[in-house]
Design a protein that fits this description.
The protein is an alpha+beta fold and 152 residues long. The protein has helices at 15-36, 55-85, 94-101, 112-128, and strands at 90-92, 131-138, 141-148.
Length: 152
């Protein structure tokens, strides 16, 4: 799959001089490819042509898969943080938070910096549930503060 942008004025190719001769030149190759294609055994009601697998298409599918996995990971992390916030205020490092959340809520990234980035991505969503999360640095250590807004 590739993106085909619309042609601008002046980019049009002349049919008689350029396009038609190019198509006539490629016709024999195209027909040879069609003749070489193996057809499915008889008995099928419909003929399906094979799907084209290009590197661009594979790259796009992989990116969509990663995006979907990241979205699911953020959703799982959000649910775990909402349960965790019910315990009250908490302060610690990303590594300590990974341990505190435990393995029962999902598999968290083993790299604390990556985990902190994931928390930043769900900070707005946590705020909708009255859970505040802040990141502070003290010396060479980074701390995460988790608080739940008190009910009126």
């Amino acid at each position: 799959m590739i993106e085909v942008l619309p042609l601008k004025a002046g980019q049009w190719l002349d049919w008689e001089c350029v396009l038609k001769p190019a198509l006539e030149h490629e016709a024999s190759e195209f027909l040879a490819q069609l003749n070489a294609m193996k057809l499915p055994p008889t008995g099928f009601k419909r003929l399906y042509l094979p799907v084209l697998a290009t590197t661009v298409k594979q790259t796009m599918l992989a990116a969509k898969r990663r995006e979907s996995e990241e979205r699911e990971g953020r959703k799982t992390l959000l649910q775990a943080m909402l349960l965790f916030a019910k315990r009250g205020k908490w302060k610690g490092t990303a590594g300590e938070l990974i341990v505190a959340l435990g393995p029962s809520h999902g598999e968290w990234p083993s790299i604390a910096a990556h985990f902190g980035r994931q928390l930043r991505k769900i900070r707005t969503e946590l705020g909708k549930y009255k859970v505040g999360i802040s990141f502070k640095r003290r010396g060479d250590r980074r701390f995460i503060h988790v608080e739940t807004a008190e009910k009126p």
